[in-house]
Amino acid sequence: MVKEFDAIIFDLDGVICYTDEYHYRAWKAIADSNGIPFDRTINNRLRGVSRMASLEIILEKSACLFSEAEKEALATQKNEIYKQLLAEMTPADLPESVKTTLDALRKKGYRMAIGSSSKNAMFILQQIGLDGYFDAVSDGNNITHSKPDPEVFLKAAQMLHTEPSRCLVVEDAVSGAEAAHRGGMKAACVGDASKEGAGNWNLNSVEDLLNIL
Ligand code: B16
Ligand code: MG
Asked: Which of 69, 112, 154, 165 has the smallest number of CB atoms closer than 10 Å to its CB?
């Protein structure tokens, strides 16, 4: 079979591991302590979106106005709560089925990268035992525009020395699928983005990648 892709770029939160739940809990604590309504439906809009852009979405429901300095303080507080949750993670938080799938794709000869909006991506990879596993890591620290801008994926493709059209993006966020498409890449989606039909392939799980690659 002629291969359509040479490389696979994986989103991190919600694809490789379930840190999306920790983002939710940390933002929920901030929203509750400021009397701002926040639920899982609103949380789905934060997937793939940068920390400050996430805060702006949460503040849409706030009755009060916050200064730029207050917003910075809220984002910092959220990140402190989030990092405490990340510190509890261990390699047991990398689902066995995800690791098996990654190993199988590596065996098939695909180059593999992370394309995440998170500034905590390296810490998460260390915590779950994937430090040094990927051929490249493009994350929230090397971009100026977060998803749905394609920058994070285009940088990952560059690091892999691979044309965007030869990269497949794996995403759980609608904003991430849009970023892939805007970067000239196809997207295989799981989770929320799959339910929304945002991908070229809308899968039940990461394991299903083995049926299409
Ligand atoms: P941080 P991904 C994204 O990661 C998350 O989905 C999103 O909810 C979060 O706001 C963003 O990272 C920034 O994260 O606050 O750790 O820099 O899904 O692109 O891997
Ligand atoms: Mg994600």
From this structure: 69
Residues 73-125 pLDDT 10s: 999 999 999 999 999 999 999 999 999 999 999 999 999 999 999 999 999 99
Q: Is the CB of 78 under 6 A from ligand 1?
A: no
pLDDT value for 25:
97
DSSP letter, residue 188: E
pLDDT in tens, 14-68: 999 999 999 999 999 999 999 999 999 999 999 989 999 999 999 999 999 999 9
Distance CA 195, CA 128 (A): 27
User: What's the gap in Å between 3 CA and the centre of ligand 1?
Assistant: 31
Peptide bond into 148 cis (omega under 30): yes
